[in-house]
Here is the input.
Amino acid sequence: MSPDWIGTGKVRARATGDVVEITIDGLTTQAKYYKPLAYEFFRKEWTSRPSYGDYTVEIVMEHVGDPPWLDLDNLAKALLDAIKGYLFHDDSQVARLLVERRQGEREQITIRVFPRITADG
Here is the structure.
């Protein structure tokens, strides 16, 4: 059984084991829009503490029709700034970052954050 989502607005999140999944409904061309939106969600609704160690962060922007004019590097920076201090202490802990734009069934951003697994454990 999948854990329940936290949040009822544009931003929702859930934790399944070590994986935290965040969704943000809707798209805009302004990456700076997402930082306060996600930050407020974590400040008001998220209860877990940040951890140390290396992390993998996967960000997928899904769009319907033509993709919005949005630089993915700016989107990634805004989202990493919003979640640092809540999921990890500093974005220097991100050892692997995947940012992708693709056609989808709805306009949303999905972020998956989980500890980086290395070959030696």
Observations:
- The chain has a mean pLDDT of 90.
- The first helix runs from residue 34 to 45.
- Strands lie at 11-16, 19-25, 55-63, 94-103, 108-115.
